């Protein structure tokens, strides 16, 4: 009974594998023709941008062209692998383990299946191989484990990384030559040659300016306070008390800031505050003096008016 099940399963695997491989090959050929037309149209648009002097747009569009070219090249390799496996399906049926000569083709199909959504037949082929050779074989190819056997060209063509500047410049020159354009590539070469700073971690200049110079600390004993002025006392004019700035013992490993660099700025700040306070006080006193003088003049005028009235009616 088990022998009949093995023969039945073997026949089912072979028929399903052949069907999926034939469908994948046919779909890949249709996609290749469609992608060729799209690439021609995209290259023509980039040539128009170059001719109009809109090089910034052309530099962006060329990345999409390179991406489509890489996918097309990957599909060509996958088509060859599918045809190669299709011819050797009887060998796969007769052997329990994956043959060494078919390992690269099968591993490449498994790796490319989830990355080529336009060819859903590859996912069915991947599931068939997973059922025959186990999940470990499938995971090794999908995760690019050592000795997985995945074709290197497939990995590079299906990569999601941005194309390098040299590749973009090369394609732009090829497009200009294809459409017989007199295009000066010096501006594009200079722009692509710039090294843009990664600002995700913050600007290096800002981070460098934020770091204060460190001063070596001298300690006489583990229990004695540091002698570099880390404990400083700020005396105010009102003599209400002193505020001691103490560094916590738990942050002794953090970089220390030299107190000699902080004290001048504190003195300058306190001097500015005193000058502002003095100027405000002098303004208030001056206004008070003016008010007193005005009141005295008003009093003298009232007395003179009263005396004048007494003289007239006395």
TrEMBL record:
<protein>
    <recommendedName>
        <fullName>IST1-like protein</fullName>
    </recommendedName>
</protein>
<feature type="region of interest" description="Disordered">
    <location>
        <begin position="215"/>
        <end position="241"/>
    </location>
</feature>
<dbReference type="Pfam" id="PF03398">
    <property type="entry name" value="Ist1"/>
</dbReference>
<dbReference type="InterPro" id="IPR042277">
    <property type="entry name" value="IST1-like"/>
</dbReference>
<dbReference type="GO" id="GO:0015031">
    <property type="term" value="P:protein transport"/>
</dbReference>
<comment type="similarity">
    <text>Belongs to the IST1 family.</text>
</comment>
<feature type="compositionally biased region" description="Polar residues">
    <location>
        <begin position="216"/>
        <end position="239"/>
    </location>
</feature>
<dbReference type="InterPro" id="IPR005061">
    <property type="entry name" value="Ist1"/>
</dbReference>
<dbReference type="GO" id="GO:0008104">
    <property type="term" value="P:intracellular protein localization"/>
</dbReference>
């Amino acid at each position: 009974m088990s022998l009949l099940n093995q023969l039945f399963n073997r026949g089912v695997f072979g028929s399903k594998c052949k069907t999926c491989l034939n469908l994948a090959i046919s779909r890949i050929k249709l996609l290749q023709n469609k992608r060729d037309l799209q690439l021609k149209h995209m290259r023509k648009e980039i040539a128009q941008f170059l001719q109009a002097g809109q090089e910034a747009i052309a530099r962006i569009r060329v990345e999409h062209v390179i991406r489509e070219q890489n996918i097309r090249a990957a599909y060509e390799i996958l088509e060859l692998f599918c045809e190669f496996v299709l011819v050797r399906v009887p060998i796969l049926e007769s052997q329990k383990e994956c043959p060494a000569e078919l390992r690269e083709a099968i591993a490449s199909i498994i790796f490319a299946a989830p990355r080529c959504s336009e060819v859903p037949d590859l996912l069915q082929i991947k599931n068939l191989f997973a059922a025959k050779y186990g999940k470990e074989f499938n995971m090794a190819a999908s995760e690019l484990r050592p000795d997985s056997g995945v074709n290197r060209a497939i990995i590079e063509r299906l990569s999601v990384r941005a194309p390098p500047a040299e590749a973009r410049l090369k394609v732009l020159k090829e497009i200009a030559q294809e459409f017989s354009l007199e295009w000066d590539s010096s501006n594009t070469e200079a722009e692509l040659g710039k090294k843009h700073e990664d600002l995700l971690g913050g600007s290096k200049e800002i981070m460098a300016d934020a770091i204060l110079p460190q001063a070596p600390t001298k300690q006489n004993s583990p229990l004695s306070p540091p002698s570099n002025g880390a404990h400083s006392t700020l005396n105010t004019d009102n003599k209400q008390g002193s505020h001691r700035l103490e560094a916590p013992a738990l942050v002794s490993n953090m970089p220390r800031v030299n107190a000699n660099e902080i004290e001048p700025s504190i003195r300058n700040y306190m001097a500015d505050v005193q000058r502002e306070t003095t100027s405000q006080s002098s303004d208030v006193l001056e206004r008070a003096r003016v008010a007193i003088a005005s009141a005295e003049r008003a009093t003298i005028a009232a007395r003179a008016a009263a005396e004048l009235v007494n003289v007239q009616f006395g």
